[in-house]
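User: Hey, my collaborator sent me this sequence without any context and asked if I could get a structure. I don't really work with proteins. Can you help?
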Amino acid sequence: MIRPILIHPDPRLKKVCTPVEAVTDEIRDLARDMLETMYAAPGVGLAGPQIGVTKRIITMDCSKEPEAEPQPMVLINPEIVWASEDLGSYEEGCLSIPDQYAEVQRPARVRVRWTDLEGAAQEQEFEDLWATCVQHEIDHLDGKLFIDYLGPLKRQMITRKMEKLKRERTREQA
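Assistant: No problem. I've predicted the 3D structure and written it out in structure-token form, which is a compact way to encode the shape of the chain:
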């Protein structure tokens, strides 16, 4: 089921998420909905709080080439256990901040530990877009948005655009 994506500013996007206690059928259904929502958006990553669920769960698939096989990933309670000193810069966007993009510098490589949908511990190193995406989504779980890395003027400008977008969408639905 495709779920509605929250648009910034929304207080739920600034909350620190609680860990997932156990991988249940409910969590597996949530993961399926998140993947479906992410692909429909379309996006390369989605975090629980973006659909109003304050649990530590993210989905991502950074295989962007049209002929590439999808590589959907679900990471439950993800944590970065190592980050490279060298940085990478990507123009980031966010499904909760539509049509707004900005360069953000982050570690170029990260090692992440998480629980999969079978309840097993996983650990993997990510680089390039995958590294940026996993860090961006984990930030969501900690109540942080990519615009929090920007200067106050740019952040304020984007926030005002999102407030205007939300007003327009509310009027369209009325």
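In plain terms: The radius of gyration is 16 Å. You can pass these tokens on to your collaborator as they are.
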